[in-house]
Amino acid sequence: MIWNPAETMNRSEMAALQLTRLQETVSRVYERVAFYRDRMDAIGLKPSDIKSLKDIEKIPFTVKNDLRDHYPTGMFAEDTRAIVRYHASSGTTGKPIIVGYTRNDMAVWTDCCARLAAAAGVTADDVCQVAFGYGMFTGGFGLHYGLEHLGAAVIPHSSGNSERQLMFMQDLGTTVLIATPSYALHLSEIMAEQGIAPEDLKLRVGLFGGEGHTPEMRRLIEMRLGITDTQNYGLTEITGPGVSYECLAFEGMHINEDHFYPEIIDPVTGETLPEGEEGELVLTTLTKEGIPMLRYRTKDITRLNYEPCSCGRTLVRMDLVRGRSDDMMVIRGVNVFPSQIEAVLMTIHGIGPHYQIIVTTEHFMDQIEVQVELVDASRLESYRELEDLTHEIRHKIRTVLQIDVRVKLLSPQTLERTAGKAKRVIDLRTKAF
Ligand code: ZN
Predict the structure, then answer these.
(1) What is the DSSP string of 277-323?
(2) Where exactly does CATH 3.40.50.12780 map onto the chain?
(3) Distance from the alpha carbon of residue 179 to the mean position of ligand 1, in angstroms
(4) What is the distance in A from the centroid of ligand 1 to the CA of 16?
(5) What is the pLDDT of residue 93?
(6) Mind listing the pLDDT tens digit for each residue in 121-137?
(7) Which CATH architecture has domain 329-431?
């Protein structure tokens, strides 16, 4: 179901609306936020210089550190009296990032989350269990308000306590699960332990977000929970959940571009890339009052598709996020993500899930060595088998990434195991500057 007529606006009407809102936003922050005024003054840019959407490229980028530097409310465009809600991003180190919503920001956010749920087929007949954390994190409250606005019943369970979670699912007939994909998988394991089959529950749809999600995870979640897995995307700095979401055509996530204007840039040079090319997503809020964001660098790598969708929405679609620009390596001028190498390795039989990528410079050229563990140590004894496997890995990586790599096969259990995020890339290149 399409929740808001804005989702089917034609492109020229949308562009006109975006330009008006962009001009209002730029004027507003120029008047009210010293950070933006100083940045614009420094390059001689005035709000009146924004005459077309293309002129957005004249505006400097905003990055996460700008928000940290102006902690807690230095980038707010409204007096704290006008703020009706605060949220914060989860930071692993130091102070978090604080965002504030006015009454109107709450209404927009709620509407965007209702659009998200409606696009996944959720209706007023559904019973929705929110297993996202409530609190300063935007996930729980964002979806909660959106689902209620849609008329669905909400069970505000919050994260954790899986057994109780399953009890409510059974007793209240939960049909929609709102969670991170990894929590959904965890829940499926608890179900198996307790002998609860997918048929014992009424679950039919998952609204998943908050972290990356591989196609393999999606298949597993759909199979184990017996649901349709839909993904959505958002970030605290922009609004929280509700920035973009999948429809049931599953060909990308529709961006609520009447509120959030997207661009794709080359993460290294900062240049705007032509339509359809892959790069870093940059977002500008078009209606946000509390803490507007001009050209915020999300660090998320994706691609935009402006073709109309079979679902009837005209809103631009972004691909599911493929990685973070922080993880991107530039190898002989080619952008390479560890996730691309991982995806190739996963298709090859006989090697394990543990690998490491070593980048070095030799004769002024970048070299990559992929180290990967064999599943079976006995293969190390057959020179011929090792040769064949090495050749297969090299060939597949060359086909997908157009780069030549060296391959080193290791005995099982050779690479270091860490409890947290595995260190996949070791860059030993000599830096020219
Ligand atoms: Zn669609």
Answers:
(1) --EEEEEEESS-SSS--SSEEEEEEE-EE-SPPTTS--S-EEPPP-E
(2) 1-324
(3) 22
(4) 22
(5) 60
(6) 999 999 999 999 899 99
(7) 2-Layer Sandwich (3.30)
- Cβ atoms of 1 and 121 within 8 Å: the answer is yes
Which CATH number does the domain 1-324 belong to among 3.40.190.10, 3.40.630.10, 3.40.50.12780, 2.60.120.200?
Answer: 3.40.50.12780
Burial of 340 (0-12, 13-18, 19+ CB in 10 A): middle
Greatest alpha-carbon span in the chain: 73
The Å distance, Cα 253 to ligand 1 centre, comes to 7
Structure tokens at 259: 């509120």
Q: Where in the chain is CATH 3.30.300.30? A: 329-431
Distance 310 CA to ligand 1 centre (A): 6
Residue of higher predicted confidence among 367 and 99: 99
CA distances from 55 to 47, 282, 294, 355, 374 (A): 10, 15, 12, 44, 53
Q: 10 Å Cβ neighbour count for 103?
A: 12
* Distance between Cα 158 and ligand 1 center (Å): 29
pLDDT in tens, 200-224: 999 999 999 987 777 877 988 999 9
Cα(118) to centroid of ligand 1, in Å? 11
The strand ranges marked E within 342-427 are 351-362, 365-374, 406-410, 425-427
pLDDT of residue 241: 97
Q: What is the CA radius of gyration of the chain?
A: 24
pLDDT of residue 189: 86
